[in-house]
Design goal:
Helix content: 25-40%
Order of helices and strands: HEHEHEHHEHEHEEEHEEHEHEHH
Shape: globular
Largest sheet: 7 strands, mixed
């Protein structure tokens, strides 16, 4: 996904003179050709993420469309105060594009892991948050974001589904499979694992590549007719990140909700992304155990 981001952004820089890209050392070499063509609009601030966001806000204030890029913990967590004050408080738009997701850089240790980025950014209003599960989805989101003027976060990952599942240009939930026992919401790159885990289970499977704003309408349609809806929320970030959105969408109904995602406990054995997925129960076998137990509970 990151290579697609660089390729598409470099192309957009050629055609959109109002676009600027700011990096904090990450992907700097990948933008070297674009920087030669547009030295004033491809800016590397070094490892100064707070400055990265403050400059992004300033560039937006003068009427340009900035795209800021770094690893998720350095783009969202470290400069969160600047996001709050220099973007939201100033009332300006920007596109933030992260890499690394929750544990793509597992060997980098806790400093390079960011399961809580979406939950943290969700404390601020007016953000559209995309969690693409395929490079094709990320490209559509990026092109759309570059043409707008609001606040957009695109969370890229090294993990990917085998195919795109989102309808291009549509941020709503996509129904992939129908059933009667429960509704499983698969977010971003965990969709293939969810489809494998639920292959012979009698459940709805909804796919979400955009989690803010959350598409409550499609979820309500999915559970219509169920006296007590059972919903499983499978997210590649902190467990329960979108639980409030699900419960708000179904307010007024008794709901049974199982949130699955990255646990709060820190894994201190670095390992690989695949090992982290197993440890958090987010591989197909782990998801099947959790979902089967949930729908068979009385």
């Amino acid at each position: 996904m990151r290579q697609r981001f660089v390729d598409v952004t470099s192309e957009l820089l050629d055609t959109n003179g109002n676009l600027a890209v700011l990096t904090a050392d990450l992907s700097t070499e990948m933008f070297s050709h674009a920087r030669k063509r547009h030295p004033a609009r491809v800016i590397n601030v070094g490892i100064r993420e707070q400055l990265l966001i403050s400059m992004t806000g300033g560039i937006s204030l003068v009427g340009m469309r900035p795209i800021a890029h770094s690893f998720a913990p350095f783009l969202i967590e470290r400069p969160f105060e600047q996001i709050k004050l220099d973007l939201n408080h100033q009332g300006v738009g920007a596109v933030l594009v992260s890499a690394g997701a929750s544990y793509d850089i597992a060997s980098g240790g806790r400093t390079h892991q960011s399961p809580g980025d979406v939950a943290l950014l969700s404390t601020l209003p007016d953000w559209t948050i995309h969690v693409p599960g395929h490079a094709d989805e990320a490209e559509v989101m990026l092109r759309d974001a570059a043409a707008r003027d609001d606040l957009i976060y695109i969370r890229l990952s090294n993990q990917s589904n085998r195919q795109p599942y989102a309808t291009p240009g549509n941020d709503r939930l996509t129904m992939l499979r129908t059933g009667t026992q429960a509704t499983v919401i698969a977010v971003g790159p965990l969709c293939d694992a969810v489809l494998e885990a639920t292959a012979d289970l009698d459940v709805n499977v909804l796919y979400a590549a955009t989690v803010r704003p959350f598409d409550g309408d499609t979820l309500r349609q999915s559970v219509a007719g169920q006296a007590v809806p059972r919903v499983v929320l499978v997210e590649p970030m902190l467990e329960g990140t979108s639980s409030t959105e699900v419960l708000r969408s179904l307010s007024g109904k008794p709901v049974r909700l199982l949130p699955l995602g990255v646990a709060r406990e820190e894994l201190r054995y670095y390992g690989t992304p695949a090992q982290h997925a197993i440890a958090h129960g987010l591989d197909a076998a782990g998801l099947r155990r959790s979902i089967s137990f949930f729908i068979n509970e009385q």
